[in-house]
Amino acid sequence: MRSKKMLSITIAAVLSLSMLVSGCGGNGNNNTGANTPNNGEGKGQSNSADSPKETVELKAYFPGDKPSGFEDVLKAVNEKLKADNVGASLNINFLPWSDYGNSVSVKMSAGEEFDMYLDAPWLSMSQMIASGSIIPLDDMVASRKELKESIPDQMWDANKFGGKIMGIPLGTVQGTLYGFVIRKDLREKYGMPELKTVADVEKFLYTVKEKETTIKPFVIDGRKADKLPVLFNDTLNTGKVSYIETLVPMFYYSLENKKVVGAWDAKTLDQSFERATKYYEDGILSKNIAQEQNAQTLFNQGKYAATYYAADGVEGLKYLDALKIDGAELEVVVPHDETSKPYSNYQQWNFLTIPKASKHAELVMDVANWLSVKENHDLLEYGVEGKDWESVGDSSYKQLSAYVFPGFVLTWRPTLERTPDNMLAGDKEWVEKAGAADFFNISPITGFSFDAEQVKTEYAKTTPFFDSVFLPLSQGVLPADKGKEMLKDKILGVGGQKVMDEIQKQIDAVVAK
Question: What is the mean pLDDT of the chain?
Fold first, then answer.
């Protein structure tokens, strides 16, 4: 999916690669007729008392390449849709990522009739909503039990647009938890107990630097270095923060005085910037950190003792090749104070949307509801059981083929996802925690999504300083005091205060509701 430049002091979001509502049975609204979903007692099974429905083909557009073996899986999905008497079959078309957003927009403008597609705030969702090109789903969601229950209420509530459900939120986690993947064998080699805090990790890194000659302490992709102020902070994965990230890079919201400030005034970050300066000077962070783009490979080759981790179901799997090194063992370290829940805004970045031109909206929602039953969800997301995958308990699976469906376009449901059986134990533990809505406290600015229209000129002028000043400050390349002052001068010098005032205005409107 996409790479989003953002620093989160409280949650993380992916993503991350990084998300669906209510089900069957009752006709809670007036959407009755041929497209009404059958209940199947919540099992996704056909009701033998129903007359066979005419099958309507639903056309979908999604980004990316067609998965290996997709035709066989889609055939099995359509056969089960027919057996369950849903009244629909799927015609799924994949478009190249490079032109996906434009292609869908052109199809809509040309009046092509299709029934569902992936949209997102980072694609064209705002424009599609403003133009009335996609339809609200509230009533249809409310009458579909399986769909509604497969997505936590917090996730539904936090992913509305103008107070309405404009797309089914697709995601697997409810907030991002950050941490480290470390070489457990090295920790044990030097007699260190299990690492539980950021200070423990720091001690481990300095021990490696002092005693190892061929293994360096810590590596991170320079493009992810905006995460360093999150990682090396004692408030990591807790609600014990004074300032929370607004999802507008470099700007934060103070919980103490309810004011928006720049990163230079976000006191929670002072510790992180100072640590980054020290780590860079001491060689804990590479002198080449700004250009580093091979962190995953370098860690897997055994050249580093620790790297960055996010509990998103993806990041931890990147480092399993390190286990091929003779004697190497890995463990996940996620510093977390169990007495303090971390904040989350439950925001997701991908949505299944229905074009206004579709004549089959109810049936699309019937299929979304059908896909919210575990056996149906598993069929499309993991493939044909016994051929493409096999179950490992209720929550894991072993992959048997090359079939990999991009769940973020259609099937992701927080309550239904399985984890690969080769996952590190700690990775699985933290991904499951990140997927539980109740693990988090709701952020006080949940629902805020910045609309820069009123300050688009000033905002555009501030954004280059993310790469040129904020990243070097986060990496330790720019010393803390000098970097903060430079960031302040640069941003305020191009109208940044006007941007902060507009963010403040919009957050105040959300908080007042």
Answer: 90
Is residue 490 in some structural domain?
no
Total domains in the chain come to 2
Are 297 and 395 contained in the same domain?
Answer: no
CATH, residue 225: 3.40.190.10
Is the same domain home to 325 and 194?
Answer: yes
pLDDT tier, 10 (very low <50, low <70, confident <90, very high otherwise): very low
d(CA 262, CA 266): 6
Each residue of 357-384: pLDDT tens digit? 999 999 999 999 999 999 999 999 999 9
Q: 262: part of which helix (H) or strand (E)?
A: strand 260-262
| pLDDT for the residue numbered 7 | 35
pLDDT value at residue 447? 86
Which pTM was predicted? Answer: 0.84
Contact 360/35 with Cβ under 8 angstroms?
Answer: yes
The answer to whether residue 30 is domain-embedded is no
- Considering the domain architecture, whether residues 214 and 331 belong to the same structural domain is answered as yes
Nearest to 371 by CA among 380, 363, 362: 380
Q: Are 453 and 503 in contact (CB under 8 A)?
A: no
Are 223 and 214 spatial neighbours (Cβ–Cβ below 8 Å)? no
Burial of residue 276 (CB within 10 Å: 0-12, 13-18, 19+) is buried
Taking the C-alpha atoms of residue 55 and residue 118, their distance in angstroms, rounded to an integer, is: 23
Residues 6+ apart with CB under 8 A from 89: 55, 56, 57, 58, 78, 81, 82
**How confident is residue 12, by pLDDT bands cut at 50, 70 and 90?**
very low
Instruction: Verify that 219 and 315 share a domain, yes or no.
Output: yes
Q: Is 156 helix (H, G, I), strand (E, B) or coil?
A: helix
Round to whole Å and give the CA distance between 197 and 204: 11
Residue 313: how many CB atoms within 10 A of its CB?
A: 28
Domain holding 182, by residue range, is 178-239+264-341
d(CA 357, CA 122): 22
Give 253-295 pLDDT, tens digit per residue: 999 999 999 999 999 999 999 999 999 999 999 999 989 999 9
